[in-house]
Amino acid sequence: MVYHPQGVCSKEIDLEVEDGVIKSVEFTGGCNGNLQGISRLVSGMKIEDAIERLRGIKCGFKNTSCPDQLACALQEILDN
Fold first, then answer.
1. What's the predicted TM-score (pTM) here?
2. Would you call 33 helix, strand, or coil by DSSP?
3. Which of 6, 45, 61, 80 would you label with 74, given CA atoms 20 to 30 Å apart?
4. What are the pLDDT digits (tens) for 34-70?
5. Nearest 5°: CA angle at 20, between 28 and 73?
């Protein structure tokens, strides 16, 4: 799945999920090192667990962040 985040520096999140488990996450744009770290940390994690940990994180004065947008993308996968 390709997700286009809103209100953050990253322009695209490419996700691979299998049987409710995150297989891979790749961000385009944004803070490269931090986003590589987040991608590796959530790899192998259940979707619900990642959403619970990432939802609501803010970046500076923004109402969202790249981790929060990843949670939104994962929620969209669960909802479909």
1. 0.96
2. helix
3. 61
4. 999 999 999 999 999 999 999 999 999 999 999 999 9
5. 35
In this structure, what token pair is assigned to residue 1?
A: 């799945």
- Fill in the amino acid letter for 68: D
Residues 6+ apart with CB under 8 A from 59: 8, 65, 66
Q: How far is CA 35 from CA 26, 28, 80, in A?
A: 8, 9, 25
Look up residue 17 and give its two tokens.
């999920």
> 62-67 long-range CB contacts below 8 Å, 24 or more apart?
62/7, 62/8, 63/7, 64/5, 64/6, 64/7, 64/8, 65/8, 66/5, 66/8, 66/9, 66/10, 66/13, 66/27, 66/30, 66/31, 66/34, 66/35, 66/38, 67/38
